[in-house]
Design a protein that fits this description.
Helix content is 39%, strand content 16%. The chain has 303 residues and is α+β, with helices and mostly antiparallel strands. The chain folds into 2 domains: 84 residues, Phosphorylase Kinase, domain 1; 193 residues, Transferase(Phosphotransferase), domain 1 (Orthogonal Bundle), CATH 1.10.510.10. The strands form 2 sheets. Strands 1-2-3-4-6-5 form a 6-stranded antiparallel sheet. Strands 7-8 form a two-stranded antiparallel ribbon. Helix 2 runs antiparallel to helix 11, helix 4 runs antiparallel to helix 10 and helix 6 packs antiparallel against helix 9.
Length: 303
């Protein structure tokens, strides 16, 4: 089943669909008990029929519920509706980094604006990693702004989850650790400063059709990313090299964790030439951990 506007689910009244993917959908709802709006994510029905996946979802979301960090969306409650796992989260009203990029000239931000946003994302991920949790689905649409930013329908490049997946996620061999998130943040920072992810299936109708996924997966596994500075000359050599370090195919050659990534990024006081106005914004990172664990497995199998 799925929700519908006006439906009552316990103390929550479903208002409207905020977004949907192959793994889950997210709905805005009114919490009648606390008189405020919340977001409810419900696992897709075909996946909820898989008992092992559903159980894993619930276990990992409960772990997420124990995370307390100002840059991680808080989980309020976990429950099931007709056997489909759901979680209730705080509603971030400022839109996403993806929407912010779409509203920006050439879909990019100046370094002075991007640096504090990415630094807060890295801080949240470092905290999660220290609790033994890997995000596995870091991308602009999963980085939410708590401060108000103009929202806009996505235009231009069609970019899906495959654009941000690490080589080890694609191979689906061995354990996935914090270094996978370092790679994904590198992809996000690359896009934020240049206007496009490092690897894009040119000319494809959809970034998430099978042909496009396969092409992008192959690039992640085989190709060296074009230096960000070559796509956006204002990017400094230092920042360009830093991003390429995050995008190393071999996890052992990447930046040594999100805390170190943040330190190096913050230390770059003049990393983006040509100026740019600083835009203070609080970031909240969705760490819907089990959903993204399942995404990693399903994309490889289905691709």
């Amino acid at each position: 089943m799925s929700f519908r506007p006006g439906q009552h689910v316990g103390p929550y009244v479903i208002e409207r669909l905020l977004g949907a993917g192959g793994m889950a959908s997210v709905w805005r709802a009114w919490d009648e008990k606390h008189n405020q709006q919340v977001a409810i994510k419900i696992m897709a029905e075909p996946l909820s029929d898989e008992e092992q996946l559903a159980g894993r979802f619930m276990d990992e979301v409960r772990r997420h519920g124990r995370l307390h960090h100002p840059n991680i969306v808080a989980v309020r409650e976990v429950f099931s509706v007709a056997g489909q796992p759901c979680m209730v989260m705080d509603l971030a009203r400022g839109g996403s980094l993806a929407a912010m990029l779409d509203a920006s000239q050439e879909r990019r931000l100046p370094f002075e604006t991007a640096r504090p946003l990415i630094a807060e994302v890295l801080a949240a991920l470092d905290y999660a990693h220290r609790q033994g949790i890997v995000h596995r689905d870091v991308k602009p649409s999963n980085i939410l702004l708590a401060a108000g930013e103009k929202r806009r329908t996505r235009t231009g490049l069609s970019v899906g989850t495959s654009a941000y997946m690490s080589p080890e996620q694609i191979r689906a061999t061995g354990d996935i650790d914090y270094r996978s998130d370092v790679y994904s943040v590198g992809c996000v920072l690359y896009e934020t400063l240049t206007g496009r992810p490092p690897f894009v299936a040119e000319g494809k109708d959809s970034a998430e059709d099978n042909a496009a996924r396969t092409a992008v997966f192959t690039m992640h596994l085989r190709d060296k990313a074009v230096a960000p500075r070559k796509r956006a000359p204002a990017v400094s050599p230092h920042v360009s090299a830093l991003i390429l370090r995050a995008l190393e195919k071999d996890p052992a050659r990447r930046i040594a964790g999100c805390a170190e990534f943040a330190r190096l990024l913050t230390a770059t006081s003049n990393g983006f030439m040509g100026g740019g106005r600083f835009t203070p914004a609080r970031i909240a990172t969705i760490v819907a951990i089990v959903i993204v664990v399942v995404i990693g497995a399903m994309l490889v199998v289905g691709g």
